[in-house]
Structures are given as structure tokens and as C-alpha cells.
Write a structure and sequence with these properties.
The chain has one domain. Helix content is 67%, strand content 1%. It has a two-stranded antiparallel ribbon. Strand 1 and strand 2 form a beta hairpin.
Length: 406
């Protein structure tokens, strides 16, 4: 079987890398819903260490974002800086993330109003900070220390926007020069060096600060967001350059590297949890739920190099068993709606918990509500993707002048 290269300007779609987005988003969901899952299904305590570490799904997203954007835009944007292409790129990224982010923020506002009316508690009104809402809408709210407010999950969208700005405003041109002058060994060294800042920071943080909060506080640590997103995003970008020639070949690497990498990730996360070398939870934090440890060691960031390996392996080992599963239509669809699931699932979880409280659900009724929340979260995400996210993305591209090719 011969290897047939694709045209240099061909757009590459790698189905497993879309499917892995569904897994990453659901991993975040499991982190936020883990106590209810443990109450409904006690046997799930076996996977409790993995559910506790669901915040790592965000790190997987950051690497993947840099990888995909480089695969998509390097050929058309890296020759020289062109402000028209830069504006076009940023416009397309804004059209991709902003409409849904803003819509879900409005849903959170409506949720706060309903809470205020139903409870009559004036403290609920303190959640509605208009000044902070404006910062959320401008996607700058996570660039400096703050508490998580409104939609507490869209800090990562603000972080992504920061990465998009560095990519579009000249970063991709520098990356193009880097690709032409740096050897493959140099690229590996650069990626390795970029993993060090977050691993050093992770080993210095208190456990269960989710690689985000300051020690002994629930305020985002100064500088952590740009360090986290920019190192991981640009690791993904360099990885795409490193694998560029291999991805243009139709022949797949037959080694089952993705499956082996996931096995190593799972094993390492269990080991870090079981033998936490720097056990240091915050004193006021609940450590156990029905006897199950809820504390996630931030030393778990040690798996970051394996995340890089996983994304690279999925890009070139497409006959691997895991890659085949991630490339199936249900998981590819799940990957497409993963952004909507990530942003909106706290609302669905909140509605499910309120239903359980009002009906005093126990036993089978509680199990039914837990399962219903899982199904409803994906269903609601599909609705948001189908009627908000996708139309906005397509309209943004249609509005871009034809002579701006990005």
C-alpha cells in the first residue's frame, strides 16, 4: 500500500479528535455531578478518583484547540502577517464561541431571577453583578484574579480567547517560521519545556484547587489562567507542526498507541491519587462523601505529556481500537455538541437537583432523576448546538468577505 500525500492546502478532518472532545466534556460533567452519581450508584466509587479529576478535561481541550487551529490555519496564515486575515480569523473564532457563551449567560441570569422569586432570599441578587456580566460578555473576565461568578465554567472560554488573540495577532506567523527553522528534535524539546510551568505550579498548589484557585481561597490564582492556556495551546500548535507531514499521508500508523496511552493515563491518575506525595487539602473543604474521598490531587497535572501523546497518536493512528470508537458517528456528534454541553450542564444539573429536592426523591425515583439529568444535559446541548451555536458559526463565515481566506 503506497502513501499518497494530500495537497498542502487541504483541510484535514480527523474524526477521533472530534470524538475525544465528547469524552473531555463529559469528564468535566462527571466532576460536577459525581456526588449524585455516587448516591445513585454506589458501585461507581471505583471510578471516583477519575471523576474527581474531571477538571483535567479543560487541559485536554486547550491542547486540542491549539492543534486543530494550527492544522486548519497554518498554511493560509503563516506566510506573512496580514491584518485582514488576522481580523478574519478572530471574527470566525468569535462567531464560534461568543453567541453561545452570551446566550448561556442570559440563561444563568434568568435562573438567578427565578431563584430570587422562588426563595425570596435577597442574597441571591448579589449573584447578578452587571459589571462582571459585561466582563464576561467581552471575554476578559478570567484574565486576572476573580471569583467564579455567573457561568463559572466560561473562565476557560475567556482563556481560549486570550490564546486566539496570540495566535491571530502574529503568533501563527512566528509558528510558521518556527516550523521552517527548528528541527523535529527541537520541536519535541520545545513541547517538553512548555509542559514544565503547569507541572511546577500544579505541584505547588493545594489539592482540589482544580489547577485554578489560590491556596486557602476560591479566587482564581493570579497568572494561572494565561500560564495554563498559553502553554497548553501552544504545545498543541507545535504538535500539529511536528505531525504535519505524517497527517498528509493516507496511511495510518498501525501501532495501537492511543489505547496504550489512555491506559497509561488512567493508571497514572490512580497512582497519583493513591500515593499523593503532597497531600494538602484546604482545611474547610469536605474531604469525603459517604466515605468516598472527594479530594483531587493537583499533582495529577503530571499526565500533561501523556495528553500531548494521546492527541498526536489519535491524529496518526486511526486504525487503533480507541481511535475507531472515537471516530464513530455518535461520538463525533457528541464532540460537535461538546462545547454546548460544557457551558450548559450546570443549569441542567441545578434543575435536576431542584426537582429532587421538591419531590423528596429517594431510591428508584432519585436514580431516575440522576439518569434523566445525564440524558437531558446531552439533549439540551444538542438543542443549543443545533439552533444557536451552528447557525451563528455559519452566519459568521458567510459575513466574512470572500477575499479574506483563513
Amino acid at each position: 500500500m503506497t502513501s499518497e500525500p494530500q495537497p498542502a492546502n487541504a483541510r484535514i478532518f480527523i474524526a477521533p479528535l472530534t470524538g475525544i472532545r465528547a469524552v473531555a466534556a463529559f469528564w468535566v460533567f462527571l466532576r460536577h455531578f459525581r456526588t449524585e452519581l455516587l448516591d445513585a450508584f454506589p458501585f461507581m466509587q471505583v471510578v471516583a478518583p477519575l471523576m474527581n479529576l474531571g477538571y483535567l478535561g479543560v487541559d485536554l481541550f486547550f491542547i486540542l484547540s491549539g492543534f486543530i487551529l494550527t492544522v486548519t490555519h497554518l498554511e493560509t496564515m503563516s506566510n506573512r502577517f496580514d491584518w485582514r486575515k488576522s481580523v478574519g480569523f478572530l471574527w470566525l473564532r468569535l462567531g464560534r464561541v461568543w453567541p453561545l457563551t452570551a446566550f448561556v449567560l442570559m440563561l444563568f441570569g434568568a435562573y438567578f431571577i427565578v431563584q430570587l422569586i422562588s426563595s425570596g432570599n435577597p442574597l441571591v441578587a448579589t449573584q447578578v453583578d452587571v459589571g462582571r456580566l459585561v466582563q464576561h460578555l467581552f471575554l476578559v473576565h478570567a484574565w486576572y484574579p476573580h471569583v467564579l461568578d455567573w457561568n463559572g465554567l466560561d473562565w476557560s472560554i475567556s482563556a481560549e480567547w486570550l490564546a486566539y488573540l496570540t495566535f491571530g495577532l502574529g503568533g501563527v506567523v512566528v509558528l510558521g517560521r518556527f516550523a521552517q527553522t527548528v528541527s523535529r528534535r527541537g520541536m519535541v524539546i520545545a513541547m517538553a519545556l512548555l509542559t514544565l510551568p503547569m507541572m511546577i505550579v500544579g505541584f505547588s498548589m493545594q489539592d482540589d484547587t482544580i489547577l485554578l484557585f489560590s491556596n486557602d481561597a476560591y479566587v482564581v490564582m493570579a497568572g494561572i489562567v494565561p500560564i495554563r492556556v498559553l502553554t497548553e495551546f501552544w504545545i498543541g500548535a507545535i504538535l500539529a507542526v511536528f505531525l504535519r507531514d505524517r497527517m498528509r499521508l493516507r496511511r495510518s500508523v498501525r501501532l495501537p498507541l492511543p489505547t496504550l496511552t489512555v491506559a497509561m493515563i488512567v493508571a497514572l491518575l490512580y497512582l497519583v491519587t493513591a500515593f499523593d506525595p503532597l497531600r494538602n487539602p484546604r482545611p474547610t473543604q469536605e474531604q469525603f462523601h459517604n466515605g468516598v474521598d472527594q479530594i483531587a490531587p493537583t499533582e495529577s497535572i503530571i499526565v500533561l505529556p501523556l495528553f500531548v501523546l494521546l492527541i498526536g497518536a489519535l491524529a496518526v493512528c486511526r486504525t487503533d481500537p480507541l481511535a475507531r470508537v472515537l471516530g464513530t458517528r455518535p461520538l463525533v456528534l457528541g464532540g460537535k455538541i461538546s462545547y454546548a454541553l460544557y457551558l450548559s450542564h450546570p443549569l441542567v444539573i441545578g434543575a435536576g437537583l431542584e426537582l429532587g429536592r421538591r419531590t423528596n426523591a429517594e431510591g428508584a425515583a432519585f436514580v431516575a432523576i440522576v439518569l434523566g439529568v445525564i440524558v437531558a444535559s446531552w439533549a439540551f446541548a444538542w438543542v443549543l448546538w443545533r439552533f444557536i451555536e451552528e447557525p451563528a458559526r455559519k452566519n459568521a463565515r458567510r459575513m466574512l468577505p470572500g477575499h479574506i481566506r483563513v
